[in-house]
Structure formats: structure tokens, C-alpha cells
């Protein structure tokens, strides 16, 4: 599994994907990537060529009508209903997910319902709590995956 953090850290809870993934990056530098360090399109194209990558987990704030801090998983087939084609990303995440899926890999977006995306706002306590829980779960998954490959 590869994890890609998305978002805008200047917009309060919208930076949750970047903050969460940056916390994981020190432990798993070959499996963790940030949208801010790579162009997303180039990163995805590189991952398509890696035979060791079967799943790509994107993490981002997503407005899906839940309570702040709620999480929801989106697959390529249903992402357009919740994430508009016009977004802050140069290439829509839905298109990238379809490319990944078409190469026989499993793309998933882990969306976290934000409380606020105010410019230069602070991350809300609800999002921080969810982020901390997710950090432990994802670390466990990546460690389990690492031991299977050893």
C-alpha cells in the first residue's frame, strides 16, 4: 500500500491529509508521499509502474455531509458523486483513481469531513482527534504489510 496526502494546509481542516501523512513519512519513506512534495500526476504515473504497489490510499478532507471528523472511503466508481470534477487539484482525483484502477491496482480515497476550511484557520479538535486515531490504524496496516513482504 502507498499513501498519498492531499490538501491545503493554509485552509484549516483541509490540510488534514498533508499533516497526517507527514507524521507517517518518517517511518515509511518508501510508502508515504505528499502532494506538496511531488506533482500528483507524476507521482501517480510513477506508481503505476511499480509492481509492488497494489493499493493507493489518498487521504484528503472531503465534504460528504457527515459530522466533522467523520471518515468515508470512496472508490473510483462513486467518487464523482461527492468530489466535484472541478477541484483544487490540477487533474481531478477521480481521473487519477480511474487510471490506477485500469492498471489493476486498488485506489481508495479516505475522506475526512472538515469542520472549517477557513483561510489560515487552525485545525479543529474533531479533525485532530480523527487524525490521531487514523495515524495509529494506518501505521498498523503499513507495519503488517511490511512484515508480510520480509
Question: Could you please describe the fold and organization of this structure?
Answer:
The protein starts with a strand and ends with a helix. Helix 1 (16-25) runs parallel beside helix 4. With 150 residues, it is of the alpha/beta class. It is globular. The mean pLDDT is 87. It has one domain (2-149): 3-Layer(aba) Sandwich (Rossmann fold). The longest helix is centred in the last third of the chain and has 25 residues, at 125-149. A five-stranded mixed beta sheet has the order 2-1-3-5-4, with helices on both faces. The chain has four helices and five strands, in the order E-H-E-H-E-E-H-E-H. Helix content is 37%, strand content 17%. Strand 1, helix 1 (16-25) and strand 2 form a beta-alpha-beta unit. It has helices at residues 16-25, 40-49, 93-102, 125-149; strands at residues 2-5, 32-34, 55-61, 71-75, 106-112.
Tally the structural domains.
Answer: 1
Task: Using the CA coordinates, give the radius of gyration.
Answer: 15 Å
- Listing every helix as H and every strand as E from the N terminus to the C terminus, the arrangement reads EHEHEEHEH
Helical residues, percent: 25-40%
CATH topology title: Rossmann fold
Specify the overall morphology.
globular
Beta-strand content = 15-25%
Number of helices in the DSSP assignment: 4
> How is the main sheet built?
5 strands, mixed
Task: Give the strand line-up of the largest sheet.
Answer: 2-1-3-5-4
> Structural class of the secondary elements?
alpha/beta
Average of pLDDT: 87
Using the 3D structure, state the CATH architecture: 3-Layer(aba) Sandwich
Give the terminus-to-terminus CA distance: 15 Å
Fourth-tier CATH superfamily name: HybD-like
Query: Could you tell me the number of beta strands?
Result: 5
The stretches of 5 or more residues where confidence is low (pLDDT under 50) are: none
Amino acid at each position: 500500500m502507498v499513501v498519498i496526502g492531499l490538501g491545503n494546509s493554509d485552509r484549516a481542516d483541509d490540510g488534514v491529509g498533508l499533516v497526517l501523512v507527514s507524521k507517517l513519512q518518517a517511518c515509511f519513506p518508501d510508502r508515504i508521499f505528499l502532494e506538496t512534495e511531488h506533482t500528483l500526476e507524476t507521482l501517480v504515473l510513477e506508481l503505476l509502474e511499480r509492481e509492488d504497489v497494489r493499493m493507493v490510499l489518498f487521504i484528503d478532507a472531503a465534504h460528504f455531509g457527515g459530522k466533522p471528523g467523520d471518515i468515508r472511503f470512496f472508490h473510483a466508481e462513486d467518487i464523482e458523486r461527492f468530489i466535484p470534477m472541478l477541484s483544487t487539484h490540477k487533474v481531478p482525483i477521480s481521473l487519477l483513481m480511474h487510471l490506477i484502477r485500469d492498471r489493476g491496482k486498488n485506489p481508495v480515497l479516505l475522506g475526512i469531513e472538515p469542520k472549517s476550511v477557513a483561510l489560515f484557520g487552525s485545525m479543529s479538535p474533531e479533525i485532530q482527534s480523527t487524525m490521531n486515531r487514523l495515524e495509529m490504524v494506518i501505521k498498523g496496516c503499513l507495519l503488517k504489510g511490511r512484515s508480510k513482504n520480509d
